[in-house]
Amino acid sequence: MPVLVVPEKAYKRLRELAEAKGMGVEELVLDLVLEDAGPAEVSEAYWEAAEALLRRVEEELGRGDLRQASEKIWGAAALAVKALAYEREGRRLASHGEMWEYVA
């Protein structure tokens, strides 16, 4: 998966924006980039991002960084739920509240 290099200050701002919305940076960037995309494209992008995060979890665990690993696991789970909502219903879940409702 390609890697995007972002200056540290810009990444810090992205992280602040993502945290304010209750999501990870990857999820925030995908939401912004895929705003006008169709359900199939969005669903596929979320699945790919979720799988990439899960691969990175193994790296974090190998380094003993449980905090980063748990954040990536949560991000992957959130992206997977979003992917399912798009794939099954063409529905955009914009908040964690909507995700919890969808899962329930």
Short description:
By secondary structure, the protein is mainly α. It has helices at residues 8-20, 25-33, 39-63, 66-89, 96-103. It has one domain (8-103).
Low-confidence stretches: none
Assembly type of the chains comes to: single chain
Outline the biggest β-sheet: none
Percent of residues in helices comes to: over 70%
Tally of separate domains: 1
Mean pLDDT: 88
Shape: globular
Please report the distance between the alpha carbons of the first and last residues.
32 Å
Helix segment tally: 5
Order of helices and strands: HHHHH
Radius of gyration: 14 Å
Kindly state the number of beta strands.
0
Per DSSP, what share of the residues sits in E-state strands of 2 or more residues? under 5%
Account of the 3D structure:
The protein has 104 residues and is mainly alpha-helical. 76% of the residues lie in helices and 0% in strands. The protein contains five helices and no strands. The protein has helices at residues 8-20, 25-33, 39-63, 66-89, 96-103. Helix 4 crosses helix 5. The relative contact order is 0.13. The model has no long low-confidence stretch (mean pLDDT 88).
Strands, helices and their partners?
Layout: H1 8-20, H2 25-33, H3 39-63, H4 66-89, H5 96-103
Helix pairs in contact: 1-2, 3-4, 4-5
List the keywords.
104 residues; mainly alpha; 5 helices; globular
